[in-house]
Amino acid sequence: MTDSAVTRPDPMVTQDNEFFWEAAAHHRLVAQRCTRCHVFRHPPRPRCPHCGSFETDVVELSGRGAVYSWAVLHHPQNPAFDYPVKAALIDLEEGVRIVSNLVGVEPGEIEIGMPVSVIFVPTAGGNAVPVFEAVTR
Amino acid sequence: MTSPGAGFAGQTAVAGIGATEFSRAAGRSELRLACESVTSALADAGLTAADVDGLVSYTIDPVSETELVRSMGFPEITFSSRVPYGGGGSMGVLLHAAAAVAAGAADVVVAYRAIKARSGPVRFGAAQISRGQNDVHSGTTSAQWCTPFGVLTPASWMAFNSTRYMHAYGVTSEDFGRAVVQLRDYAATNPAAWGYERPITLADHQASRWIVEPCIHLLDCCQQTDGSVALVITRADRARDLPHRPVVIAAAAGAGLFEQEIATDFYRRDLAVMDGSVALGKQLFDRFGIRREDIDAAMIYDAFTPIFLMQLEGLGFCGLGEAKDIVAAGDLAIGGRLPCNTNGGLIGEGYIHGLNLALEATRQLRGSAVNQVKDAEAVLVTSSRTGAILTAG
Ligand SMILES: [Zn+2]
Asked: What is the ipTM for the molecules in this complex?
């Protein structure tokens, strides 16, 4: 189902990342974990760079993490987004890092290290992507 | 020196340089611009198109090798390559050319870059939504992890590292501003520069609008520029018979590390340190046996001010978090400990995807720079992960 008011662009789906976006469409945050050495990895890739295994499990994550870094984007602008865009790198509990947005916080409230948890927001084509809201301490 | 892989050290030289004007609307094609800068570089070297048998550029260059060959009338190309990493690979052209010439794969290599970053169909820096994973500036798969979140521009990609850097070392936007004032001072006396006769104050920097909070004001950004530059590289002994004093490629290296991407370099553990510059510094200084204190000037890829300071630290010219202090002490000015980006840099002169910094290094070693460092004998040129040390031959 598409919502004409939603303008956020859809993810770019490839054969290497489709499991991630398929899960996100169902509001599940997942990452690859090597079947052999159990190291998590993100962004997805076909082979474990640590042990060389091609065998991979897809594991649902807790969705909890902390802001590793952030950026409030003012210019230039794209009509698909509301500005300023609150962008962040989130370090997830399982040890992987993800680019995302912060929601429900003002730019002046963002701090490195602040705890966050995942929610999902829709994209223009009816998919969904993970974004993060602050966890009340 | 018996270091492995350094066999080409000192064997080759920059014999010619050429450039078009730097403008905001060139009014002609990138191919035409490339032909003009290559023609001028060959004339500067005292060579002709018939002498050229090698070509090097780097990714995201819109000029195809075949069209350049066809337009220049190069009779037979025996070596050509493109360095990956976009602008980060710009100084890699010196490594590729030096290695090719020293190995005998080519005798005269032209390194070039043409760009219409301001007026072209793809305006560098614009907030565009890519259609595929490889059709935006970065040239890595990472666009797919940024696009749905509005992280669309080079400034936004660099910002995560910059914010973390400010947090780790207590660096402020004013610290970045002081570096920009220095760059614009250099540009103000460079007639080829966008910033010619237009120096700025720290207050101007602070008053310019936010591009990305808390790290990048408008005046921290390099200038979207139209233009082209080219260099001619040949054997050092042949260069000695050509019109200009040879500028010898004493060292050249590239560092591409695990988990390192181009601009979207988010997956290394500590983003407050530019690991690629640390690795590049080790390559250029340790492997080639050159000391940092022997460097008379440095040209460092200043696409945005934060990465300029971070590279100074990564390369080992000061401690981590201390670049702000050497900027404030005036070390980067003429007469300072390490004059940097004496053409005004990419922020003050213009952004020919980084390669114009190699021309400034050449001019310093010829003694023909507008802001000349007295008796410059060794100049470092880097673009974060690729670089070279050039010396007066
Ligand atoms: Zn493994």
From this structure: 0.96
